[in-house]
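Worked problem 6 (solution included).
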Amino acid sequence: QPEHELGLFRPVTTQSLRFDFIISRVFNLPVNQDSAPVWHVTNLLLAAGAAALVYSLGRGIGFGPTAAGMAAALFAAHPARTEAVLWISGRAECLMTLFSLATLTIAARGGRGWRGPAAAALAVLAYEKVGLRVIRVGRALPPVRIDPAFSPKAP
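Solution. The predicted structure is:
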């Protein structure tokens, strides 16, 4: 139990870090300030997954394979992402990016059902600032008027 509360609510991030600790203990890998290989490998895998989702998102919105591949390569190699990927403390950003891109990819491919909202919820639970951005975007959009006579068709 920490001495001071940080005021952050990041349960997905916390559980992923806990999982890395368990894996380190099971395989007797070092866990200290000089070496934490499992945490670094996990961040690299999350970044690779995000780059793959950039490719998939590009294909979903109509880019050709070359353009989508170039976008994914630029996303993967861009220097602005190095801190989030290489620092263990960047796990929240890595998870938020992965789940946000998953949400967009599902939406771009016409996905319906629970997967899109579930990915969006995981993004918010990984990094609470995502929710603030959604609220900001929602305030910037014009109000939506719902017709009371509207009734969705049954599938």
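Discussion: The helical segments are 11-26, 37-60, 65-77, 82-86, 91-108, 115-126, 129-140.
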